[in-house]
Amino acid sequence: MRYAPILVLLFGLGVNSVAAQEAVLTIEHAWARPTAAANAAAYLTIGNAGTGDDILTAVNCAPIAPCMVHETVDDNGRMSMHRLDSVTIAAGAHVEFRPGARHIMLMNLKSPLVAGTSFPITLHFERAGDVTVTVAVEQDRH
Fold first, then answer.
1. For residue 56, how far is the Cα from the chain centroid?
2. pTM beyond 0.70
């Protein structure tokens, strides 16, 4: 019984040494298309210049609309969208959210997205915590 606190302390030290690998995130090119429809999508690129991975666990688009991360999948010529519970941002990698692929789905918009305006999205990361970015509403970036 006297040794239990020591074992917990040693376990805690092991976890902290792993957590010392840091994720250094950058968020670039956050944008969405103008729309009159009830649903829309936001796109961006997340880079990780750190030595440790991070995980995007959720997104919050309030007060614009409820939102979540989706991925468009081509299943033998039939396109469908699937919800992603998380997205790993590996150390040294960039993850792109783009049309026809991974994106942030905005559902039941409270008002249309108008070109020239912007809105905030908060990205929830396992290590980096909450990061709020401004999404510019603009025409396609092709």
1. 5
2. yes
Report how many domains make up the chain: 1
8 Å CB contact between 44 and 30: yes
The token pair at 51 is 């030595």
For every one of its 142 residues, what pLDDT tens digit does the chain have, with 9 covering 90 and above?
333 333 333 333 333 323 446 889 999 999 999 998 899 999 999 999 999 999 999 999 987 899 999 998 888 888 888 999 999 999 999 999 999 999 999 999 999 999 999 999 999 999 999 999 999 999 866 4
What number of helices (H) and strands (E) belong to the chain?
A: 1, 10
Residue 7 counted as domain residue: no
